[in-house]
Amino acid sequence: MINRKKDSAKRADRTRLKLKKSENLRLSVFRSNKHIYGQLIDDSKGLTLVSSSSHDKSINSDKLKHKELAFKVGEIIGEKILKKGIKEKILFDRGSYLYHGRVKELAMGIRSKGIKF
User: Fold this and answer.
1) Which 8-state DSSP code applies to residue 55?
2) Which of 1, 4, 55, 65 has its CA 20 to 30 A from that of 33?
3) Are 36 and 54 in contact (CB under 8 A)?
4) Rounded distance, CA 44 to CA 5, Å?
5) What pTM value is reported for the model?
6) From CA 58, how far away is CA 53, in angstroms rounded?
């Protein structure tokens, strides 16, 4: 019998295992049906350095479609990362999600600010 939650957890674990082998910062993404969230995590210290989501007041989410909203959230995260002075050594943790749609748009929004990963 197919268990979607177990399969999703396996995919996420497989992705994170590859990322945790390095000492780089991890850019984690979570998406729900309505919103998208992103955060930059330093696993060696156990700290979240930067975070943003479509809940932010600076984003008027009523007028934007899902992909446009994800791109805007990515731009805001990119600006916050630049303020911290980080430009490289970031790994993109997509979890169990495919690099497609809103997840891809979030990444493109961050890259549009000059962040490399």
Assistant:
1) T
2) 1
3) yes
4) 28
5) 0.84
6) 10
Provide the 8-state DSSP code for 94: -
Q: What is the dihedral of CA 3, 97, 13, 19, to 10 degrees?
A: 170
CATH topology of domain 4-113: Nucleotidyltransferase; domain 5 (3.30.420)
Give the CA count within 13 Å in the CB-facing half-sphere of 6. Answer: 3
Cα 45-90-33 angle, rounded to 5 deg = 95
Q: Is the pLDDT of residue 40 over 80?
A: yes
Neighbours of 40 (CB within 10 A): 23
Write down the residue that tokens 């674990």 correspond to.
Answer: 13
pLDDT tens by residue, 50-105: 999 998 888 877 788 999 999 999 999 999 999 999 887 898 988 888 899 999 99
Q: How far apart are the first and last CA of the chain?
A: 37
